[in-house]
Please model this.
Amino acid sequence: MCGIAGILTKTEINQDLENLVLKMQNAIKHRGPDDLGTYISEDRRVALAHTRLSILDLSPAGHQPMSTPDGRYWITFNGEIYNFSQLRQNLISQGEQFQSQTDTEVILKLYQRMGSNCLEHLRGMFAFAIWDDWEKTCFMARDPLGIKPLYYWSSGSTLVFASELKAILASRLPALNLSPEGLYGYLVYGSVPEPYTLIADIHCLAAGHWLYWQGDRVTKQQYWQINFTPQAISPIEAQEKVRNALVDTIEHHLVSDVPVGIFLSGGIDSTAILALATKVQNKQISTYSIAFEETQWNEGEVAKKVANLFGAKHTEYKVTASIAKQFFPEFLQAIDQPSIDGFNTFFVSQIAHEDGMKVVLSGLGGDEIFGGYKSFEKIPQMLAWGKTLQTIPVLGKNIGKGLSRWGKSPKLKRLGDFLEQPPSSASAYSTFRGIFSHQEACAIMQQYIPHQPLTTYIFPSADTHKADLTIEDEVSLLEITCYMRNQLLRDSDVMSMNWGLELRVPLVDRHLFEAVASIPSNMRLAIGKKLLIQSVPELPEWVVNRPKKGFYVPVDKWISGDLQNHFNNVKVPDNISLTHWYRHWSLMMLQHWLERTYA
Model:
């Protein structure tokens, strides 16, 4: 796990290229505290940078940017390829010779042999750029499910890329114009939806896509997408399929030359990972959790009980309001783009880092693919209700207009948005997951981008229009491609890397997804993650039968207490309520980010 950055240009830029890329590298040095490297082409038109967190082959042989022996191809790579050892042996059998034990060199050799088709062989999380110094082209790619980020800005024949938005901003090459789409998306969803960022013309390369730069021309193409293909299968066969896929992904995610720990919340997903990891490897596992003084949020005792059951070495960190206040400025400094999440990952990553850990597993992803959220129940109900009202179109639209304009609660205003549109899983999902309504978002945008309100809705971009998808499949797709990708994965990456910690997500795995995609939604997404529970009988009843709480932080209490000073000066139109903590939090994060970015 590392940080990457680079500048590609066909024509001269009026600044020192090496100095620019060093500024970018410095902005993401926290991502790779073990080593730094740069490559400048002979014609000084290309600069690559790398910051390294050493996980595989800890020797200097893993230094990046790395090149092929002939100096033609240069790579800067962020991520882990879990099947690299097998790929390496295959390449050796075909006559390849290696100078290191790294997965980086495997990617380089594969690309040298098969170009973009190398992506079909890579299992893991990745974002990388490969410069061809002979053809003067650059190939970039992002992993299938969007675990690792890759941002880029293109203008004329110049392209700038990096692992974090702040690194591109550090180059000072892009103009700092706010993106209407990015800002609107943030206000509605609480995170900026890809491919947008908050800065116009800076984009996030979409998950499962590659990009090819040829000076004046940039080509992008999708190479993988989620495809649910239900087939006839018995419940027992479904359980066996899930069980085998889970063991397989956990085995691969434990590949490392340093110890691997686990974030443990006491919920079903992280407990399942610990249970299976304990079976896969014969050594004690270190687990980490955070606890709170506020008992309604505190899951520390459950996590400790789970750790004891499986013989783990457990570390708990109790986050009090005063500790939250102490570290809040550092948390704000760590953010790359604002979000309504991430504070919990910031703290639990800190304790793993302070314990000397470099790699941890997280249970993120289980709710999205096994139906753990309330959205799997609520959205079908909303759709049925919406379709009933649509039988009298004027009635439904008029109710929607009334609610969106005069509804007293945030939920009623968002429900009005839903009723004003033809009912769809995407519009219902926006209502369910939303922060501000359409009218509210447009009003808030006026404060930052005057005279340019959005007059159309931006709904999630998941492909939910396939005829053979059930509504539950559509919800699963939306949760995976929106909430998980734009918020959970992005915040997990930024907050763990802030502490030089590699966070791996075995439940967000291409092979796992492809294995379970054939299980019909009535089994795979059965209420309460029934299929996952049945596939891991090691789960204790007192974990399975606990009400789902999620991994929450008592922010609403802290906002009115120890963190109050950070929230006193939030700007908002008079008619928009901030009584719900997440609305107040989202605007504070946005305001802080803007002040920092435009300082």
Residues 471-498 form the longest helix (28 residues). The radius of gyration is 24 Å. The mean pLDDT is 91. The chain has 24 helices and 17 strands.
